[in-house]
């Protein structure tokens, strides 16, 4: 895909990108074929806003010079809350539309009229399965990046530096390294440049003192 080439996506990350692209293409095609345009546009809008926030968090993480920045943690917490809110809204809207919204619409028997109990059941199961898979992938990604579920929601306070053990520090370093490796080459170069400039500024400040 041209998009993957111009973004300089790594080979190991291509499958994940293609997987989500195919999922979106399948969803949009299903909306067009079944004439469920209105609910489809609303659900797509919600997921695109969620994706926008995700990329905004990544941008903040890339441009932030400190490893454990409060700004990055706050942005990550906002994204976590918004992701689950979008999943809840998707579930409520899709199931309400299928089983209550279309209940009063009479089946016409035309070629592209899919307002039948069997098809609605298939759509309902497909929507639930897709949401379950997305939440599973999200939790896997959070765990691989070293996030605790309660801490990521801001429900528990993180330990102070004096009480952190060597094991927790090692986990955080591994998580930071993994996050850095997941970035594209261009983003990695930006991150390296910002860190180098921060170190230079710190040295200059020390020499002035």
Automatic annotation (TrEMBL):
<dbReference type="GO" id="GO:0005789">
    <property type="term" value="C:endoplasmic reticulum membrane"/>
</dbReference>
<dbReference type="GO" id="GO:0045048">
    <property type="term" value="P:protein insertion into ER membrane"/>
</dbReference>
<protein>
    <submittedName>
        <fullName>Translocating chain-associated membrane protein 1-like 1</fullName>
    </submittedName>
</protein>
<dbReference type="GO" id="GO:0006616">
    <property type="term" value="P:SRP-dependent cotranslational protein targeting to membrane, translocation"/>
</dbReference>
<feature type="transmembrane region" description="Helical">
    <location>
        <begin position="21"/>
        <end position="49"/>
    </location>
</feature>
<keyword id="KW-0653">Protein transport</keyword>
<keyword id="KW-0813">Transport</keyword>
<feature type="transmembrane region" description="Helical">
    <location>
        <begin position="81"/>
        <end position="102"/>
    </location>
</feature>
<keyword id="KW-1133">Transmembrane helix</keyword>
<dbReference type="InterPro" id="IPR016447">
    <property type="entry name" value="Translocation_assoc_membrane"/>
</dbReference>
<feature type="domain" description="TLC">
    <location>
        <begin position="2"/>
        <end position="138"/>
    </location>
</feature>
<dbReference type="Pfam" id="PF03798">
    <property type="entry name" value="TRAM_LAG1_CLN8"/>
</dbReference>
<keyword id="KW-0812">Transmembrane</keyword>
<dbReference type="InterPro" id="IPR006634">
    <property type="entry name" value="TLC-dom"/>
</dbReference>
<keyword id="KW-0472">Membrane</keyword>
<comment type="similarity">
    <text>Belongs to the TRAM family.</text>
</comment>
């Amino acid at each position: 895909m041209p998009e993957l080439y111009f973004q300089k996506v790594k080979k190991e990350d291509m499958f994940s990108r293609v997987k989500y692209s195919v999922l979106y293409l399948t969803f949009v095609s299903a909306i067009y074929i079944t004439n469920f345009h209105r609910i489809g546009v609303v659900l797509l809008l919600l997921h695109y806003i969620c994706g926008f926030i995700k990329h905004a968090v990544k941008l903040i993480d890339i441009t932030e010079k400190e490893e454990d920045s409060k700004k990055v943690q706050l942005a990550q917490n906002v994204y976590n809350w918004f992701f689950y809110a979008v999943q809840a809204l998707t579930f409520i809207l899709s199931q309400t539309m299928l089983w209550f919204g279309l209940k009063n619409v009479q089946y016409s028997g035309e070629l592209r009229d899919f307002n039948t109990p069997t098809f609605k059941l298939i759509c309902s199961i497909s929507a639930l399965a897709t949401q379950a898979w997305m939440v599973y992938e999200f939790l896997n990604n959070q765990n691989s990046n070293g996030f605790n579920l309660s801490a990521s929601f801001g429900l528990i306070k993180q330990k102070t530096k004096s009480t952190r053990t060597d094991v927790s520090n090692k986990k955080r370093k591994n998580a930071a390294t993994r996050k850095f490796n997941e970035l594209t080459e261009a983003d990695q170069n930006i991150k390296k440049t910002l860190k180098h400039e921060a170190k230079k500024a710190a040295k200059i400040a020390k020499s002035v003192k």
